[in-house]
Amino acid sequence: MASVLRVAMQFVGILLSFLGWVLSIITTYLPHWKNLNLDLNEMENWTVGLWQACVVQEEVGTQCKDFESFLGLPAELRISRVLMLLSNGLGILGLLLSGFGLDCLRIGETRRDAKKRLLILGGILFWTAGVTALVPVSWVAHVTVQEFWDESIPEIVPRWEFGEALFIGWFAGFSLLLGGCLLNWAACGTRAPLASGHYAVAETQTQCAYLENGTANPSV
């Protein structure tokens, strides 16, 4: 029963981590971190991401333009680029390491300690990837809220609001955190089953001990 629970936790953990990693990549390149709806022209909407700004017009469609200068961006967008790319890299590294540490993978079956360490390291990487995804998304959301309620800006000026990418980024970050927790819990909270070769070695050693003592094996 313990081994079944351990494998189930590993499967759910790696699945959540993979989902969070995919969503973090989508968040990184989706140009919908902030949205701006113009009251004067309801058929025109503006969206901003980490790499480009887009305008959506009902007649023309969507037109996007890449940012020309990295240093010309606001501080929250510059640092968000770096952190999101770091989250993507940590996520793929965590998938590789934790994948080799899964019990269902027969590679290195006799080296349980090494597989456990890989699983723990993969979980830590997922934790770090989750944090580095939540920080930029929450920072951009905080700046957006501050600017939205800034009393120094005239009320007639349109305000930026949350884009879809922020919600996807929050879901991605929490999925990575939860997946990492499950993997580490599976590695540290439950006992790993012995490999089939270990059972054979233990049984052979027991039989040899009985033969040396000149007694019969009571299990036979």
Automatic annotation (TrEMBL):
Gene3D superfamilies the record matches: 1.20.140.150
Which family does the similarity line name?
Belongs to the claudin family.
Q: Where is the signal peptide?
A: none
Which subcellular locations apply to this protein? Answer: Cell junction, Tight junction; Cell membrane
> What does the function comment of this entry state?
Claudins function as major constituents of the tight junction complexes that regulate the permeability of epithelia.
Keywords, comma-separated and alphabetical: Cell junction, Cell membrane, Membrane, Tight junction, Transmembrane, Transmembrane helix
Key word Glycosyltransferase present? no
Species source reads Rangifer tarandus platyrhynchus (Svalbard reindeer)
Protein topology in the membrane: Multi-pass membrane protein
Q: What is this protein called?
A: Claudin
Membrane spanning segments where? Answer: 7-30, 79-97, 118-145, 165-186
InterPro entries in UniProt:
Claudin (IPR006187), Claudin_CS (IPR017974), PMP22/EMP/MP20/Claudin (IPR004031)
